Design the sequence.
């Protein structure tokens, strides 16, 4: 009987831990349209796979009578399980316990799963719903945050780290997600900021709502902090699963190979006519991406931020690839500060986790103007340049149309150790477009021509000469900067064949502690 009572005690404690801050607080969470920490884990992981750590842990604080507010698990649910059979580690903050605020013991729980994930080489997924540091614990809470941040830093480039925001994420707590690889936010109820609306009002006098200051759409469109936004919590968790399907579990592995019935040698005749004859006319580069990847499936990253550059994951011949493409439909596909930051971050993730890069180029240059120069476009552009030049994964580049000036170099040119560089017959690789080049090359002669018709005729002749020489890919091919000029409809086949040939490539790197990327 004594043993049976101990079993009952265990089961009672498990029931107590599973209810978090109590049924009233759970009901309130549901009234706000939010799921609980355990409900989120149940939706994320394969059924029955979750193994929990530290269910019975409680905080140690006695300040402000906190010893009277003890909850088993202390505001975060941690452990491991599987997603589609693959091992992952997870922590989910429980807003029903002290508003999910971080205590010293909560940080110990989170650090434990991060340490274990590093040991076994598995991704870490953090489900954030927290009021920030637990004020009652003072510097102990701050130390707990710092312990988590240090582990985020050590895990960077070793295991994938995904942060999901399902409620408040304020103050110091925003820095852990910021240190991870991807941030996902649910459209409703989630927000991130360093200082809330009240502090902003006190310090700057600015009136701003929570949503306008740090809501999901703000971070998806303006700041670029959020990589993905889900309509609901369930949809956001589905995006986590989809993302994981494209990436490896750690930096020593390759992404999962997914067999496909989509023929490798499939030809897409529409690609032979997708680029308009008028070089200033836009088209949607996503149509090209959809035409060459397996089954047209493309998971875009940062879809709402810097739309002039498209980045995301797809598969080609069953292999995961990272796609980087200029988007002529947005700002003519120019590179600017935001697009450069976006591209550099994505390229570095792919390189860290052995994901080959496929780059589709149609770029007229960098965006000019004081706004860009004052915003540091030089340094931001250098980030993308650095990322491509440093990357050692297989790199295949296809120039579709324009590839002008410094932007040509930045978009994975041959000299940045791109392995295979193809071009379509519509490619134009030059320092600048014909009109600008003519004005520079023949500026003196143009000043001497006073007759408008004669000047227009002279300009047309010189532009034609320039176009005949540079508005084609053969000049670059003559010097070996382009490996082959290909028929657009064969792009899928040629890229996949190149990626297969490059599967075992090795690029030597100089011995160094680490690089000093321009930040």
Sequence:
């Amino acid at each position: 009987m004594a043993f049976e009572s101990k079993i009952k005690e265990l089961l009672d404690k498990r029931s107590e831990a599973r209810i978090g801050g109590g049924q009233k607080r759970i009901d309130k969470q549901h009234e706000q349209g939010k799921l609980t920490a355990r409900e989120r884990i149940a939706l994320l992981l394969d059924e029955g796979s979750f193994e929990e750590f530290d269910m019975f842990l409680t905080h140690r604080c006695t300040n402000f009578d906190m010893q009277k507010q003890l909850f088993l698990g202390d505001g975060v649910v941690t452990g491991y399980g599987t997603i589609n059979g693959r091992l992952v580690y997870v922590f989910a903050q429980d807003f029903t316990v002290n508003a999910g605020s971080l205590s010293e013991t909560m940080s110990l729980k989170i650090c434990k799963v991060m340490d274990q994930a590093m040991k076994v080489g598995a991704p870490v997924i953090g489900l954030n719903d927290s009021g920030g540091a637990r004020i009652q614990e003072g510097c102990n809470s701050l130390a707990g945050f710092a312990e988590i941040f240090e582990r985020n830093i050590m895990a960077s480039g070793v295991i994938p780290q995904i942060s999901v925001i399902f409620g408040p994420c304020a103050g110091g707590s925003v820095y852990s997600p910021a240190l991870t690889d991807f941030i996902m936010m649910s459209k409703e109820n989630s927000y991130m900021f360093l200082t809330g609306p009240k502090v902003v009002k006190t310090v700057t006098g600015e009136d701003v709502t929570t949503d306008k200051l740090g809501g999901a759409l703000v971070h998806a469109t303006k700041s670029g902090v959020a990589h993905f936004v889900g309509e609901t919590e369930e949809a956001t968790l589905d995006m986590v699963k989809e993302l994981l399907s494209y990436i490896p579990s750690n930096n020593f592995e390759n992404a999962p190979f997914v067999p496909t019935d989509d023929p490798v040698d499939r030809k897409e005749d529409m690609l032979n006519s997708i680029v308009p004859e008028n070089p200033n006319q836009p088209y949607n580069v996503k149509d090209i991406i959809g035409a060459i990847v397996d089954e047209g499936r493309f998971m875009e990253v940062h879809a709402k931020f810097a739309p002039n550059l498209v980045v995301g994951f797809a598969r080609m011949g069953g292999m995961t690839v990272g796609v980087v493409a200029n988007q002529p439909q947005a700002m003519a596909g120019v590179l600017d500060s935001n697009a450069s930051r976006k591209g550099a971050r994505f390229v570095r993730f792919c390189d860290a986790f052995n994901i080959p890069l496929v780059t589709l180029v149609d770029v007229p240059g960098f965006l000019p103007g004081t706004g860009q120069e004052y915003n540091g476009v030089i340094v931001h552009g250098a980030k993308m340049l650095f990322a491509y030049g440093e990357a050692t994964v297989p790199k295949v580049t296809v120039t579709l149309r324009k590839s002008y000036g410094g932007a040509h170099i930045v978009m994975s040119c041959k000299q940045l150790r791109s392995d295979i560089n193809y071009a379509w017959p519509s490619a134009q690789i030059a320092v600048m477009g014909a009109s600008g080049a003519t004005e520079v090359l023949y500026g003196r002669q143009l000043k001497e021509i006073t007759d408008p018709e004669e000047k227009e005729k002279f300009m047309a002749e010189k532009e034609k000469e320039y176009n005949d020489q540079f508005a084609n890919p053969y000049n670059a091919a003559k010097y070996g900067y382009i490996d082959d000029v290909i028929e657009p409809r064969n792009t899928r086949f040629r890229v996949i064949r190149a990626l297969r040939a490059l599967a075992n490539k090795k690029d030597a790197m100089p011995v160094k502690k680490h690089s000093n990327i321009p930040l």
Notes: The chain has a mean pLDDT of 92.
